[in-house]
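W.,

You were right to be curious about this one. When I first looked at the sequence I had no strong expectations either way, so I just let the prediction run and decided to look at it fresh. Below is the sequence, 401 residues in total, followed by the output.
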Amino acid sequence: MNTTAKAIIWVVVLGVVAWAGYAMLGAPAEAPVEETVATSTVPVAVEPLKIGFIAPLSGDGASYGEMKRNVVMLAVEEINAAGGVNGRPLEVIYEDGKCSGKDATSAAQKLVNVDKVHFILGGFCSGESLAAIPVAEAGQVLMLSTGSSSPDLTGKSRFFVRDYPSDATQGEVLAKAAAAKGWKKVAMIQEQLDYPLGIFKAFSASFEALGGTVVKEEFPTSATDFRSMLTKLKAAKPDALFLNAQTPASGERVIKQLVDLKWKPKMLVNEAFVGDRATVEKYKDILEGALAAEFAVDPANTKFAALDQAYKAKFGVDMPFKSYGQTVYDGVYMAKEGLMAVGDDGAKLADWFRTVKDWQGASGSITIKPDGDRESGYSGEVVKGGKVEMMAATTATSTPQ
């Protein structure tokens, strides 16, 4: 092959290679055509506003805590469906206080130091609240209790308020009712916890001031045998027996042994027991005529009626412990208003709650006093035929504490 032929072949080869490269790289981009493209806005997730919750979700007090959690869930769903708190959805972190000071302290430490909440619904049992307050106080977190009623909580801390009344009024109502019956000596069987202790202190102070005397036997929560205590109290020949337990479960254990001993005394029972209407019905024979006191519900209150209906529609059962359920519901809605007014700040919320006056809720008109207590009291009741009825007006109410 001569030199000219070789040159021609190389030119052809180079041309093919150049063409292949051009094809692989693509032709130069044409000038862009101007056109208007519609853009879509992607919703930005809104950070939820977290609040804490402490109540007994296990143990004898679980029936209270489950009801309370259900009411909180229902109220939070309503609030979030209506736009939340200043556009932010509420999110509740639920902790089990087990009606125990130790467990409530641990729950509060987690909520305050790990979850960084500035508002806690709870505790429910008085022992939970008394134990958790120092933790909340140190973290400047407001606690709103919707069930703790021990008089020892009155004025306990700037960072504690409650929309449930003090047991000082419950004890006073029952003492007046007992005295009105002409009873001079009342025997009390009391569980060794803060809530029953508060009732004992209030009842005994009022009853003794009216000329009566109180004899008492105490039992730990773990107790299952009450025969010796009941036998001792019966021997004291009281005019009536006061069953003062923390929960319906522990109260029922005492009632069963009363039945076994065939002792059928005239009785007083606290709100924790009488609030469980199924248990009252179950033991209606021995409880006939028993005196009690509760923070009353008003079926004519439209907010309460709506709550009662909504609870049954959502959970398929009647709302238990209605006197507690109404204050739980109100507590969530007051928290919403406070958070909207002053923001997620425990100290500001503590001050805001003490400005609440004549706030209309499911539990009626709410005013929070400077000492953190609700300005209202208990109403006297009597058990008849397994049902709980209001007492006569002369013994039914007490002066607000």
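Here's what jumped out at me. Residues 191 and 245 are 5 Å apart (CA to CA). And, maybe more interesting for your project: The chain has a mean pLDDT of 89.

Coffee later to discuss?

I.
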